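Ticket #4471: structure output looks truncated?

Reporter: J.K.
Steps to reproduce: submitted the chain below (146 residues) through the standard prediction queue, then opened the result file.
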Amino acid sequence: MYQLGRGIITTAQDVDALTFPWGTVRILSEPTVTGAQHFSFGVVELAPGQGHARHNHPGAEEIIYVLEGEGEQMIDDRPAVRVRAGDCIFIPADSYHATLNVASVPLRLAIVYAPAGPERVLRELPDCRVMPAGPHPPQGTVVAEP
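Returned output as attached by the reporter:
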């Protein structure tokens, strides 16, 4: 991470990796990382066949941009629709939603919350494991003990 003028440039190694049974979240810009006050931004990787449970973000809108892969997106308990790389999903504040990876390869997403805040709730979930900032092995890699 480094400062460029009044801006800040971050990489995945600069932030904690929040790991779940369904995948990994890295929040690259939020008040505690970059000082951003009005939104947060991160990347999500959903493992093949996995997804996150139906949930909402009280008072915060979310934008999901599909970077790679294919999935199904549910919003407001309506039947899920297929989403692919290049699709942008807007989720209004308070709307219940869920995303499922339907492919045999990871589903990579860019996410934005406005205002910032929902990203902090992720750390409080019982199945969240925080891997401190630094280089991490690719998801699915088994790390041998020394």
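Triage note (M.O.): checked the attachment and the full token line is present. The two ends are 29 Å apart (CA to CA).
Status: closed, working as intended.
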